[in-house]
Amino acid sequence: MARRKKKNNFFKSIFNLIILIFLLFVIVFLVQKFIIPLWQEKPIREGIPEEIEEEEVVSEIEELEITLYFSDENAQYLVPESRKIKPTDYSAKQSIVELIKGPKNNSLYPTIPQTTKVNALYVSDRIAYIDFSSEIIEDHPGGSTGELLTIYSIVMTLTSFPDIDKVQFLVDGNSGETLVGHVDTSVPLERDEQWLKK
Fold it and tell me: How many domains does the chain have?
């Protein structure tokens, strides 16, 4: 009888021990799952207000100064004019859009028909491929000097960017031998400082 009682006490002790171990595992799990993350998260959220987090993400956009090239009053040379734009991934394209708008200086003259659109511009191997709408041909006044001023105002403007050495002209996605019959535009063109007014 005493032996049976002793045996029952032994099994009860084992059972209680198993329950105790199980409860310990449950407590450890709950602490790791819920309590510790709350401790870690609380000081971060209290230390950094939401308003400051948003301000750090938004940075001020500074203006980018670009150089555009327009015709002088005698339609013989190109003259640089500085302009400020908002910097974007398309700053080179935007510079040609600004060039089409014309000069702000009254003594300078535009070199591209204002009806012209820039379809696309991309740079590969330091060559800028610029695709114009057909108005650059259809609305061009003509003449060899006029065509040269148009072409080199674009070349000089784009090669002012540090990642561009040459310019390839396209019209509605196609490269032609010339714009209005005088200058070979079938190959990429380099910067030519001789067009600058001394």
Answer: 2
Between 138 and 54, whose confidence is greater? 138
Q: How far apart are CA 43 and CA 112, in angstroms?
A: 60
Q: Which two tokens stand for residue 81?
A: 């004019």
Cα–Cα dist 193/170, whole Å = 23
CB-based contacts of 155, cutoff 8 Å, min separation 6: 166, 167, 189, 190, 191, 192
Determine the distance from the C-alpha atom of residue 92 to the mean position of all C-alpha atoms in its chain, rounded to a whole number.
Answer: 11
83/80 Cα distance (integer angstroms): 10
Q: What is the pLDDT, as a whole number, of residue 45?
A: 35
Q: Are 186 and 176 in contact (CB under 8 A)?
A: yes
Tell me the per-residue pLDDT of 101-152, one tens digit each, with 9 for 90 and over: 999 999 999 999 999 999 999 999 999 999 999 999 999 998 889 999 999 9
SS3 134: coil
Q: Are residues 92 and 31 in the same domain?
A: no
Q: Which two tokens stand for residue 124?
A: 């590969």
Same domain? For 77 and 163 the reply is: yes
The H-or-E segment that residue 50 falls in is helix 50-57
Q: How confident is the model at residue 39 (pLDDT cuts 50, 70, 90)?
A: very low
**What letter would DSSP give residue 112?**
S
Q: Which domain holds residue 131?
A: 64-195
